[in-house]
Q: What sequence folds into this?
């Protein structure tokens, strides 16, 4: 296991462990939280349709702030718009297109000032705020959904452009700072067919979203990273393991020297030499005329030569033609007929 202390392995192990820890402590819990938030929002939206609109004072007591449980609930309030106390919220997206939302102050009969989100307008030329109808005057009754104040993560300052105060978040507190008077926490988002309403903001999608599946994927990735680390460590150990005892003996055992191999060249040369000597004796006998009468009496070449025997085969004794009386002339003719042209 000493190889694990090499720089490459140390870096590899640290990266895998850090990734697994991030999956289990950051990425997966973050997706679980988003799934819980989405589920709570869907439940609140569904509950808002089950409850009829109620007076704002019953859902949010005077001087208090709305809580998460009353978000999206429909509230009714009576009073009048303050058209001069108005601002637009920039950098919004409605139905996948850029838009501005219009926040206008509304004074209720009990004296509270409430921020009303009248809806959205599309940008005009140069991405500036397009001309939109002003808020109506006079006493009227509005119905809207309760919303919590937003915050700008970058804390960007509000500014005025094109004759409109522009904010980076839909917040009653930011609106109060711009108009110079306190505004009750939270704001009301108008539903359809309300006085002073503009483009109606759609409700969020009530689908649960992919957050839960993403959370399980991060958990799976973390487990796969740890499993892969163990697999590669085991593979490295198997490659570095010592050879077995039997393999060591086979490698270290000396091979016995069989000694010099017998050379078969001498045997072959001796056998061919004996054959040549036999043939020479036959030719000499033919020249001298001393040839046996029958083939059985002729000298025979060696029937078998053992090429594998390391010993030399002894030379056969020289052939000695048997003595016999002189042959008559037909013997010469017989030799000529058998061998063709006579050599003598």
A:
């Amino acid at each position: 296991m000493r190889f694990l202390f090499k720089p490459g392995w140390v870096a590899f192990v640290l990266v895998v462990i850090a990734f697994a820890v991030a999956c289990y402590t950051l990425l997966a819990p973050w997706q679980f939280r988003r799934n819980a938030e989405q589920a709570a929002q869907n439940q609140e939206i569904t509950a808002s349709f089950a409850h009829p609109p109620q007076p704002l004072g019953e859902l949010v007591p005077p001087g208090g702030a709305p809580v998460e449980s009353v978000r999206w609930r429909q509230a009714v309030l009576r009073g009048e718009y303050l058209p001069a106390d108005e601002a637009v919220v920039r950098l919004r997206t409605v139905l996948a297109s850029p838009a501005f939302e219009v926040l206008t102050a509304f004074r209720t009969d009990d004296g509270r000032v409430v921020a009303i989100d009248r809806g959205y307008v599309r940008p005009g030329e140069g991405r500036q705020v397009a001309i939109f109808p002003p808020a109506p005057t006079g006493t009227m009754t509005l119905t809207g959904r309760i919303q919590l104040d937003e915050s700008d993560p970058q804390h960007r300052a509000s500014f005025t452009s094109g004759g409109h105060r522009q904010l980076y978040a839909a917040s009653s507190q930011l609106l109060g700072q711009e108009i110079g008077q306190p505004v009750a926490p939270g704001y009301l988002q108008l539903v359809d067919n309300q006085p002073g309403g503009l483009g109606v903001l759609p409700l969020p999608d009530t689908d649960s979203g992919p957050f839960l599946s993403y959370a399980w994927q991060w958990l799976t990735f973390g487990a796969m990273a740890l499993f892969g680390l163990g697999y590669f460590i085991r593979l490295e150990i198997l490659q570095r393991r010592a050879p077995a005892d039997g393999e060591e003996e086979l490698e270290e055992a000396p091979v016995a020297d069989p000694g010099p191999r017998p050379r078969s060249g001498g045997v072959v040369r001796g056998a061919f030499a004996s054959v040549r000597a036999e043939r020479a004796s036959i030719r000499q006998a033919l020249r001298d005329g001393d040839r046996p009468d029958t083939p059985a009496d002729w000298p025979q070449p060696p029937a078998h030569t053992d090429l594998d025997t390391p010993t030399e085969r002894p030379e056969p004794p020289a052939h000695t033609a048997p003595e016999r009386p002189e042959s008559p002339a037909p013997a010469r003719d017989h030799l000529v007929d058998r061998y063709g042209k006579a050599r003598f």
Observations:
- DSSP finds seven helices and eight strands in the chain.
- The first strand starts at residue 54 and ends at 55.
- Residues 73-190 form one domain.
